[in-house]
Design brief:
By secondary structure, the chain is of the alpha+beta class. It is built from 16 helices and 21 strands. The chain starts with a helix and ends with a strand.
Length: about 725
């Protein structure tokens, strides 16, 4: 018996992560972790025999398909769920669902994502069992074993398990970082009582509607089981996640020891004209500021210093922030010198402009029904109260030290809150930008974020630019800071990556040792090759890796051929020739039948036997359309590029993967090259098939600050 709950949680966490990565279909996930969880649950159940509750355990291994939107279909077969029902011995009609997932991404121990949540749930179950008074309602604890594979296990539970019909609300425990406070970043749909209950129960509640609206807008490239329970179960819930130190998310550094124990109206006439002119000046200053920081970011990119801020975040604040503040101060200083108006009147005018613009933002957000409208409300109410209280003092004495102190005190509450939110935004987006594969330079996004933060925070401080007699010393200091930082960045002083164990900033790459086989229209092997497909997971490409491994350079960079579905690897990759791979359990693929239907379509049925992770790519040729298939309801998702992708994973002892599709052949279709290209990729993540001597040799050559996610793949392309 553990002395404290914290020690028990720590013990569970270390036991779960001690087996290493827990990918779906691996023995570590499907056997070792499942057995450990069942053993702990059985020990807890033995204690419930004398209490007011009883426990029911059910192991579910569902099979199914569902659409993730767009053209992606997620299919699964015999994935694992451990469902534990806790209810009073007098029975219960309604249940709350608590969800975590114990699987992890390849090559990561997944301590925060999501072993720690499962460890917490075990102890919550243990604590509730030992209550002396029975619960009014029951609780279902779902330990799901396939979240990282497109949220599959939660879909299997909420759509197929008989207990799902009794669930009235849920709490989903997730991670977007390693440690820190858990942020409530999604709630609903509707049902505000959930948030109220959370606020009453949590010792230190931490939530933001801003986080919810940013996450649900699609800006953050991630998703959680919350979506499955909400969309497929129509159940209200709360989504909690760790957000601190997202640099370690989905890497080998996500280990147990890194999870800390302690996370206004005025008169019309001339004033209106002055107000309009002042609004134009303010907006012009913002536009020029944004263009300036974008130009600086472009220079950084052209110098080959992209992502210097990844390891040195405050260097970006100093570089882009000094440029943004300097431009704002310079433009308003020039405007002040060209206006024949008293400095006091100009200061008051631009205060009113800032107030007016924040009112416009408040009205817009309120009209759209956005809960984050409370932010501009704070930026309207507190400054307005300050002005009303200080107006007589300001008119009588001008900008005295006493006035300045009182003015700043009036802004303290909204500014402290907004700066806190800005810090959270940077903490979330900095690691996301560092692992973005978008063609848009992340330096542009970082520069824009810093500039936008500067614009927001400067709104009511422009008041002081017009009150000051001179801004020369401010511009001199900002110019000096910018020049110094620009020179240091240009000299390469701020290297983007770090292998420092206390604060790692890894560069992510994926390395597939792949063998590709291309078959002709009659099924014979047309060509084949083998090599290392190296895919970059951030913007800098291989420029920092080439000095360590000269063979990996832009001369071997390859792009996807449009006529081949996905070409066997991502659209831009570095392909280094290597010996052929020979998995002990090779992919088995065959066409079972081909027939013409009464509707004039051609139906093809296939059978696939292979590893736990496989991908299917379909590319109808010109004049041919995909009319129906066996995935996700039978209607293919519309895709502008004309290509379709199906991701498939299975647990242990799964049957062969059988599927079919129908194609409609138009009059302009040419049979010479076939009507459809089909490619099947098999990915070996675990066991001896997931490694090769050549792959291990290559991985050892990468520098310490590189985190290479590696596996073995085979790719077969057919035409029909």
């Amino acid at each position: 018996m553990c002395k404290t709950v914290m020690l028990c949680i720590r013990k569970h966490l270390e036991q779960i992560t001690s087996v290493g990565p827990r990918t779906v279909g691996s023995p570590e996930n499907e056997i070792t972790t499942v057995n450990y969880l069942l053993d702990q649950i059985e020990q807890i159940r033995s204690e419930s025999k004398t209490g007011p509750h009883f426990i029911t355990v059910d192991i579910q291994r569902p099979t199914g398909c569902f659409s993730l939107g767009g053209f992606t279909i997620s299919c699964y077969d015999h994935v694992t769920n451990i469902a534990v029902k806790l209810q009073p011995k007098t029975s219960a009609q309604h249940f709350m669902l608590a969800n975590c997932h114990f699987d992890s991404v390849p090559n990561s121990p997944g301590a925060s994502d999501d072993a720690v949540s499962c460890s917490v749930m075990l102890e919550v179950l243990h604590s509730l069992v030992n209550l002396s008074m029975p619960l009014k309602h029951g609780v279902i604890f779902l330990f799901n074993g396939a979240e990282e594979t497109k949220l599959q296990a939660s879909h299997g539970f909420i759509t197929q398990h008989p207990w799902a019909q009794q669930v009235r609300a849920f709490v989903n425990l997730e991670a977007a970082g390693v440690g820190g406070k858990e942020l409530v970043f999604q709630t609903g749909p509707e049902n505000p009582w959930l948030v109220q209950a959370y606020a009453r129960a949590a010792v230190h509640p931490f939530a933001s509607v801003v986080g919810q609206e940013i996450f649900q807008s699609g800006l953050i490239p991630s998703d959680t089981d919350f979506r499955i329970f909400r969309d497929f179960g129509n159940i209200p819930g709360i989504d909690l996640a760790f957000i601190e130190n997202g640099f370690l998310y989905h890497t080998k550094y996500d280990t147990p020891e890194r999870i800390h124990t302690n996370s206004i109206q005025r008169a019309a006439g001339r004033y209106i004209c002055e107000l309009v002119c002042a609004v134009c000046v303010l907006i012009l200053s913002w536009v020029i500021t944004l263009l300036t920081v974008l130009f600086v970011a472009l220079l950084v990119k052209l110098m080959g210093r992209s992502m210097f801020w990844y390891s040195y975040f405050y260097a970006a604040i100093c570089l882009y922030g000094s440029a943004a503040i300097g431009i704002i101060v310079l433009i308003h200083t020039l405007a002040k010198t060209r206006c024949r108006v008293r400095r006091v009147d100009l200061a008051e005018l631009f205060f009113d402009v800032s107030l007016l613009l924040w009112c416009c933002v408040l009205l817009f957000l309120t009209s759209r029904g956005w809960c984050s409208a409370y932010l501009p409300m704070m930026m309207v109410v507190f400054p307005l109260i300050s002005k009303l209280l200080l107006s007589r003092h300001f008119r009588a004495r001008g900008a005295t030290l006493q006035y300045s102190v009182l003015y700043l005190m009036g802004l303290a509450i909204p500014y402290i809150h907004i700066m806190f939110l800005i810090r959270v935004i940077f903490e979330v987006f900095t690691p996301i930008l560092g692992r973005s594969t978008s063609e848009t330079p992340p330096d542009f996004i970082m520069a824009l974020l810093v500039a936008l933060a500067t614009v927001i925070l400067s709104s009511y401080f422009i008041h002081f630019i017009y009150l000051s007699r001179s801004t020369k010393w401010i511009l001199a200091v900002l110019g000096s800071v910018f020049t110094l930082m620009f020179v240091l960045v240009g000299c390469g002083l701020f290297f983007p990556y770090s292998a420092d164990p206390s604060s790692p900033r890894p560069k992510r790459v994926s390395v597939q040792h792949i063998t590709r086989r291309f078959h002709s229209l009659n099924g014979s092997l047309q060509s084949s090759d083998s090599g290392f497909c190296i895919n970059n997971q951030d913007y800098t490409g291989m420029q920092h890796i080439t000095p360590y491994i000269p063979q990996i350079n832009d001369s071997i960079c390859t792009l996807c051929q449009e006529q081949l579905p996905y070409y066997g690897f991502p659209r831009k990759s570095w392909y280094l020739p290597a010996p052929e791979v020979s998995p002990k359990a090779p992919l088995e693929f065959q066409l079972l039948s081909r027939q013409e239907t009464e509707g004039g379509t051609i139906k093809m049925t296939f059978e696939v036997k292979g590893p736990s992770h496989m991908s299917l790519y379909l590319h109808p040729h010109a004049g041919v359309s995909l009319s129906s298939w066996s995935f996700g309801g039978g209607t293919p998702g519309f895709n502008l590029s004309g290509k379709y992708f199906v991701f498939y994973s299975h647990g242990l002892d799964a049957a062969a993967w059988n599927f079919w599709f129908e194609i409609q052949v138009g009059l302009n279709a040419s049979p010479d090259e076939g009507w459809i290209s089909l490619a099947i990729s098999a990915h070996y993540f675990s066991g001896s098939d997931g490694r090769s001597e050549q792959l291990e040799s290559l991985l050892k050559r990468f520098p310490a600050w590189v985190f290479p996610a590696s596996w073995i793949s085979t790719y077969h392309m057919y035409r029909y």
